Amino acid sequence: xxxxxxxxxxxxxxxxxxxxxxxxxxxxxxxxxxxxxxxxxxxxxxxxxxxxxxxxxxxxxxxxxxxxxxxxxxxxxxxxxxxxxxxxxxxxxxxxxxxxxxxxxxxxxxxxxxxxxxxxxxxxxxxxxxxxxxxxxxxxxxxxxxxxxxxxxxxxxxxxxxxxxxxxxxxxxxxxxxxxxxxxxxxxxxxxxxxxxxxxxxxxxxxxxxxxxxxxxxxxxxxxxxxxxxxxxxxxxxxxxxxxxxxxxxxxxxxxxxxxxxxxxxxxxxxxxxxxxxxx
Length: 280
Ligand code: ZN
Prior knowledge:
Blueprint: E1 10-17, H1 22-27, H2 35-59, E2 64-67, H3 69-74, H4 76-84, E3 88-91, H5 104-122, E4 128-129, H6 140-146, E5 151-152, E6 162-165, E7 170-173, H7 183-186, H8 201-218, E8 221-226, H9 228-231, H10 234-248, E9 253-255, H11 258-267
Parallel strand pairs: 1-2, 1-8, 1-9, 2-3, 4-5, 5-7
Antiparallel strand pairs: 6-7
Helix pairs in contact: 2-4, 2-10, 8-10
The chain binds zinc ion.
The site of zinc ion (ZN) has 6 residues, from loops.
């Protein structure tokens, strides 16, 4: 169990992945021809981000936004507004490329392209990384540590953060879970993702609230992940606002951007943990 600042019972981060068109284009470049599909993805930076920034400001919560380099270059105004709002900008690939099958050399190029784009648009050198599609390669943590990243937020094996051994160094790992991601409930992109059975905000908020309360009792780290093209829609953003207000009212919940949570964990001086690849 982690000791949280000021005796807090648990740590909480409300995070956003500003994917926009990038995950579609990384897997299916032909989807660029589909104007309506592209417009659904553009809703994220164009309408979702401004609305969610207002929600966060209303709740007085600072957040972490994971931004593919391509999104930053295509929507520099929206991404600069996130940084100007006091939120953390973190790395999420260049074109949200799936990492499976990529060599370390190929991945290094994408990491560096993403770093360059985020720096060009916001002046920020990110300290945090989240793998596109939440799928790391076993060699990815070492590439991140080599580049000075403080933390990753892509693994699912723990309620608590830990130091992940990277072979020469370590990286703070801030674990996540698909349960706390809006994609499965809200995302429908014809011919690409989802079944068309679109979840309703009240049910999703109830699921997340219950999950928060259980994690709070367990003393762990609760990370919620939303996508502006999905949860930036009015009814969903309104439900999210209600949930953030609920969590913020709990005196035992420490709400912070992931970089601050990772810095706290780094300060604990935990012994790095080795994760080993199973041999089939
Ligand atoms: Zn993503």
